Amino acid sequence: MMPTSRCAELVAAADQALATIDSTVLRRSAFDPVTARQDFVVTMPDVGEIHFLPRLTAFLAQHAPTCNLRCEQITNEQMEAALAAGDIDLALGYFPNLEGPGVLRQRLFMHSLVCLVRADHPIVKSKTVPLATFLELSHAVVRSVGRSNELFEMLLKKQGLQRRIQLLSSHFLSVPAIISETDLIVTVPRSIADYYARLENLRIVEPPINIKPYAIHQFWHARFHKDPGLKWLRESVALLFTEPPNRARRRI
Questions:
Q1: Sheet holding 214-221, edge to edge
Q2: Around Cβ 97, how many Cβ atoms within 10 Å?
Q3: 161 Cβ partners below 8 Å, 6+ apart?
Q4: 2, 148, 157, 240: least CB-packed within 10 angstroms?
Q5: SS3 152
Q6: Would you say 46 and 173 are in contact if contact means Cβ atoms under 8 Å apart?
Q7: 3-state class of 166 per DSSP?
Q8: pLDDT score at 148
Q9: pLDDT digits 0-9 by tens, 53-97
Q10: What is the CA radius of gyration of the chain?
Q11: CB contact at 8 A, 146 and 171
Q12: Exposure of 108 by Cβ count < 10 A (0-12 exposed, 13-18 middle, 19+ buried)?
């Protein structure tokens, strides 16, 4: 069953009313990060943890020293309900289907995909890889909670391109060790490739297919839009991760 447009309007109005009650009756009117004791709960793909958590954790340690950060793994199907229920304060990442009634979002930055191979790869020796060579290589593919990998898979399918997937995994954690020990090639977000290349004997290679950049957002629910602590958290995330050209236009 699908809600009618009128039903969606009623849900949005109810969320707004609940948000007002939350902020004026049930919640504190102010948030002082220096003295506050609050657990912030966020969700993101494991690849997002590498990008977001080091800087965000360090920022909280400095500016909100008695607040804690918890990162929970939530499936895409559960994410909207978790935000609405307050089980999750923020979702960070590429979630194109997270757009239900009451879900708010802010764009943080644009991301792109690149390939990784081991530094002494016997076939891929330059900063680019020809399409024919790319398709002949054996690939590692990660299918995690995030959706960025789907962009690449859909692009390959649209162009009728096929390659051998020798390794299929649900996690990014093992990627650098695997690529450094094999002749596999993997396609990952650029910031993660930069990080992995510093850890292992890896080399970044531009893919032979034009992959358009995609937007990374932070998502929250309208019920908690005016919550002082969560507003401070969103502003902190925006301060840390919004691309400079967008910071002047940022409004939470």
A1: 68-71, 39-43, 90-93, 214-221, 103-111
A2: 10
A3: 131, 135, 209
A4: 2
A5: helix
A6: yes
A7: strand
A8: 66
A9: 999 999 999 999 999 999 998 888 899 999 999 999 999 999 988
A10: 21
A11: no
A12: buried
What CA–CA distance (Å, rounded) separates 163 from 175?
Answer: 18
Please state, for a pLDDT cut of 70, what percent of the chain lies above it.
83
Locate tokens 């912030």: which residue? 40
C-alpha torsion 108→95→10→72, nearest 10: -90
Interaxial angle between packed helices 190-199 and 46-63, expressed in degrees from 0 to 180 and rounded to the nearest 10: 80
pLDDT at 48 over 60: yes
Given a contact cutoff of 8 angstroms between Cβ atoms, the answer to whether 95 and 181 are in contact is no
Cα diameter, the chain: 65
Measured N-to-C along each axis, helices 46-63 and 228-241 cross at an angle, to the nearest 10 degrees, of: 110
Strand pairing class (138-142; 164-169): parallel
Q: What is the pLDDT of residues 221-240, one digit of tens each?
A: 999 999 999 999 999 999 99
Average pLDDT over residues 202-221: 94
Measured CA to CA, the distance from residue 27 to residue 30 in angstroms comes to: 9
Q: Look at strands 185-189 and 113-118 and give their pairing.
A: antiparallel
